[in-house]
Design goal:
This protein is of the alpha+beta class and 346 residues long. The chain folds into 2 domains: 89 residues; 237 residues, 2-Layer Sandwich (BirA Bifunctional Protein, domain 2), CATH 3.30.930.10. The chain is built from 11 helices and 10 strands. The strands form 2 sheets. Strands 1-5-6-10-9-8-7 form a 7-stranded mixed beta sheet. Strands 2-4-3 form a 3-stranded antiparallel beta sheet. Strand 3 and strand 4 form a beta hairpin.
């Protein structure tokens, strides 16, 4: 009897040891501990025994069951350990490899252009002005000789803010950086009149208009320039801006022309075009900026006497300069955050 129970234990241990995974181990368990298993059959056979025999036989069967369950637990633990070791081996890390550094960021191409513009104009004595992007109507339109019925003031062209300024007129997201020319000039007007110090400033920054396609964006960047003194002529504008373009594009091999145009804040006014003599844009005239001699009414709004002070202003889109410098065909690439595009400039 004792030998038979020992054989059951040995057989169960051998079957458990032969199982290679958890499902097969559960099947082997049922063979011995299930409803029709060997241990269950032994318990059923006790029905014909006397009370004394049941007591002895029951203790022997319980020891057999305990031994089988111990063998089952041991095999389960072994299979779990094997699975863990296999996972660790598959996911092993070679600690002798050099570490992976953090990815390096880069300057956005438009910001590269912004910095380059500041550097070029800074080298010839221009200050850099920065100011509010939520602007008052007077600075954005009225001070720049834009009449109240001008189309640029339409809700279809301009983002208005649902609140009014101190003058009772609605505030808006600035449509150009020209308001900073007004703010800067009014702050430094006394330097011009008392110290003879000219106003030389550029105003780069974000601007907003209701426009969006491959060459326009509701938010974009501009740089506007202003030079006011007693004897600043249109010839100075041509010289300064032509030199800027040649330095920005690092090429003397381009032509610049000033084509008559109209802007309410300058008179006379001109569109500035340039023409490349080599490269993929060879032979093409491209509009690059608006410019002109500052209108007398605007000079007066600066707090200066237009009979004595004169000067020029210009405005250029930083995205357009960037697109031409790097050969980019779609403005929207600047705002999509696609790393495949941005990594080219890192």
């Amino acid at each position: 009897m004792t030998q038979s129970l020992e054989q059951i234990i040995a057989s169960a241990s051998a079957d458990f040891a032969a199982c290679a995974d958890a499902p097969s181990l559960e099947n082997a368990k049922a063979k011995y501990l299930g409803k029709t298993g060997a241990v269950t059959d032994l318990l059923k056979g006790m029905a014909t025994l006397s009370p004394e025999e049941k007591k002895t036989r029951g203790a022997e069967i319980n020891r057999t069951k305990d031994a089988i369950e111990a063998a089952l637990r041991a095999r389960r633990d072994a299979l779990a350990a094997d699975a863990l070791n296999a996972k660790l081996a598959a996911e092993s890390i070679d600690v002798t490899l050099p570490g992976r550094g953090k990815g390096q960021g880069g300057i956005h191409p438009v910001i590269r252009t912004w910095q380059r513009v500041e550097e070029i104009f800074g080298s010839i004595g221009f200050d850099v002005a920065d100011g509010p992007e939520i602007e008052a109507d007077w600075f954005n339109f009225t001070a720049l000789n834009n009449p109240p019925n001008h189309p640029a003031r339409s809700m279809q062209d301009t983002f208005y803010v649902d609140m009014n300024g101190t003058d009772g007129l609605p505030l808006l997201l600035r449509t150009h950086t020209s308001p900073m020319q007004v703010r800067y000039a009014r702050m430094h007007a006394s330097d011009v009149t008392t110290k003879g110090k000219p106003i030389k400033v550029i105003a780069p920054g974000r601007t907003y208009r209701v426009d969006s396609d491959a060459t326009h964006s509701p938010m974009f960047h501009q740089v506007e320039g202003l030079w006011i003194d007693e004897n600043i002529s249109f010839a100075d504008l041509k010289g300064v801006y032509t030199d800027f373009l040649r330095r920005f594009f690092e090429s003397d091999d381009l032509q610049v022309r000033f084509r008559p145009s109209y802007f309410p804040f300058t008179e006379p006014s001109a569109e500035i075009d340039m023409k490349f003599e080599s490269g993929p844009l060879k032979g093409k005239w491209l509009e690059i900026s608006g410019s002109g001699q500052v209108h007398p009414s605007v000079v007066r709004n600066f707090g200066l006497d237009p009979e004595r002070y004169i000067g020029f202003a210009f405005g250029s889109g930083l995205e357009r300069l960037t697109m031409l410098r790097y050969g980019i065909g779609d403005l929207r690439l600047f705002f999509e955050g696609d790393l495949r595009f941005l990594k080219q400039f890192a």
